[in-house]
Amino acid sequence: GQVRGAGRGVTISNYFGRAARSTPNTNVTEKLSQLETKLRADFEEKLAVERQLIQKTMMETLKSIGF
């Protein structure tokens, strides 16, 4: 907002400057990309484990009923 008593068009940024960003936008984009890659890899790994578990369970079930 505006700073009271300082006149029209004067903002707090005129006194203190703009807020410093902790990371540039390109760094944020890169970090998001790395996070997406990691999440995809984690998901694929967990999916593979689940597939193996389902396959093992199905094979045991088929053996137990005489297939």
Give the overall silhouette. Answer: rod-shaped
The strand count comes to: 0
Largest sheet: none
Element order: H for helix, E for strand: HH
Q: What is the subunit organization of this protein? A: single chain
- Would you identify the regions where 5 or more consecutive residues have pLDDT less than 50? none
Mean pLDDT: 86
What do you see in this structure?
- The chain has two helices and no strands.
- With 67 residues, the chain is an all-alpha fold.
- It has one domain (12-64).
- The mean pLDDT is 86.
Keywords:
67% helix; hydrolase; rod-shaped; 67 residues; 2 helices; peptidase activity; protease; mainly alpha; Ulp1 protease family carboxy-terminal domain protein
Summarize the structure.
This protein is mostly helical.
Structural topology:
Layout: H1 12-16, H2 25-64
Protein name: Ulp1 protease family carboxy-terminal domain protein
Keywords: Hydrolase, Protease
GO biological process, one term: proteolysis
